[in-house]
TrEMBL record:
GO annotation terms (biological process): methylamine metabolic process
GO cellular component: membrane
Compartments reported by the entry: Membrane
Protein name: DoxX family membrane protein
Topology with respect to the bilayer: Multi-pass membrane protein
Length: 393
């Protein structure tokens, strides 16, 4: 029994630390997932949505800390019972999301590993069993070191988790697992191959015939029902088709879609702000300085936002920005970069660098060929003027 407890202890502790660190690497992304759970479509708890980031940081830090506590044997009773309470909550959440088909991805491992709710529920169920074993064998969980070293390790685990969370919030995730990571080509990420598997769907059509409702199941075609009045239709996905890694990304005006044109640019700087109304003011002051420099060095600079025309105009005026904002989907922009505003540097649609508004000085802006050619033309023009003047003299 003692050996089984030790195995369960290692498995649970390691998994909680791993899962927590993955989410702690991107607490803003996890907060977006919590907002999805809190929405009216899932748990209908919109009162918690404004506090999603704080809750996210608290949950993931607690997840890591409890994993560390379990492995080193710090306060076993508190640790095990806390783990049990947490896994009961997670198990309920994933079951609810899976049974009512409310959430497609549970967010348990962030963008590192996508799991649908039923897979996540199965994982939580296994963890629940392992933790119940730990509850039963609580007396076998002892500190692996003396009292002082164990307390010191517990404190370091707590401080380290808080520091890491603060660091990625003030900068960017240390590890980027998203489709817009450095090295990824945005245009390529939107392509659906010709031989990609197509989705298989089942449509249940409801009609009212002679005062009674009648259901007809098809693969998508609209059924003909003599004397029937259409009531509604329900769609069920039997098998999902190919899902491109990048969706809903665009660069648009009210009249035109300029996505392909801008993604073909040799040197493009995108200032990303999913919401100009909630963007960091000091961040835009930093953006102003670096984008002015980028323009001087021959870069094409644009802004991307989901905000309306009034917000675009006022932001450009307030910060005296020398570039225009274009429209893009809010969810896509939140995925592009975890900073509002943030800067993405591209070359022909390939992401070269991403920086938080706190790190704009780290943006690498060598002079582009366009600016070098312009400089050469200016030098040639000046040389010609000097030569002409000298000749006249």
């Amino acid at each position: 029994m003692k050996d089984i407890i030790h195995i369960c202890r290692i498995l649970v502790g390691a998994l909680f630390i791993f899962s927590g660190l993955i989410k702690l690497n991107d607490p803003i992304g996890f907060s977006y997932k919590l907002q999805e759970y809190f929405s009216a479509d899932v748990l209908n708890l919109p009162v918690f949505e404004p506090y999603a980031l704080g809750i996210a940081v608290f949950v993931v830090v607690l997840e890591v800390v409890l994993g560390v506590f379990l492995l080193i044997g710090y306060k076993p009773k508190f640790t095990v019972w806390s783990l049990l309470a947490m896994i009961v909550f997670f198990t309920f959440l994933t079951f609810y999301a899976a049974y009512f088909e409310k959430v497609k991805d549970c967010g348990c491992f962030g963008d590192f590993l996508k799991m649908d709710p039923w897979e996540s529920f199965s994982k939580d169920l296994i963890l629940l069993i392992l933790i119940l074993v730990l509850v039963y064998g609580l007396k076998y969980i002892k500190p692996i070191f003396g009292k002082f070293p164990t307390t010191l390790l517990a404190l370091l685990g707590f401080i380290g988790s808080l520091w890491f969370g603060y660091h990625v919030l003030m900068h960017l995730p240390t590890w980027d697992f998203r489709a817009y990571k450095v090295g990824a080509n945005i245009a390529d990420g939107m392509i659906v191959p010709e031989d990609a598997p197509k989705p298989i769907q089942e449509f249940t059509w409801t009609f009212k015939v002679n005062g009674e409702e009648k259901e007809i199941v098809t693969d998508g075609s609209y059924p003909t029902v003599a004397g029937g009045a259409y009531v509604g239709v329900e769609t069920k996905v039997i098998r999902a088709g190919y899902d491109p890694p990048i969706k809903d990304f665009s660069i648009e005006t009210e009249d035109d879609n300029l996505t392909d044109a801008f993604l073909a640019e040799d040197h493009l700087i995108m200032v990303v702000s999913y919401s100009l109304e909630t963007a960091n003011a000091e961040g835009f002051n930093n953006v102003k300085d670096i984008t002015d420099l980028a323009i001087k060095r021959g870069y094409t600079v644009i802004g991307l936002t989901a905000s309306g025309a009034d917000a675009k105009a006022s932001t450009k005026q307030i910060y005296d920005l020398n570039f225009d904002f274009y429209l893009c989907d809010e969810k896509a922009l939140k995925t592009v970069i975890r900073s509002n505003p943030g800067i993405v540097k591209l070359e022909k649609g390939t992401v070269i660098q991403k920086v938080h508004f706190n790190d704009v000085d780290d943006l690498d802006l060598p002079k582009s060929r366009a600016s070098e050619n312009l400089l050469l033309k200016r030098k040639d023009s000046i040389s010609l003027m000097v030569f002409s003047t000298t000749k006249r003299i």
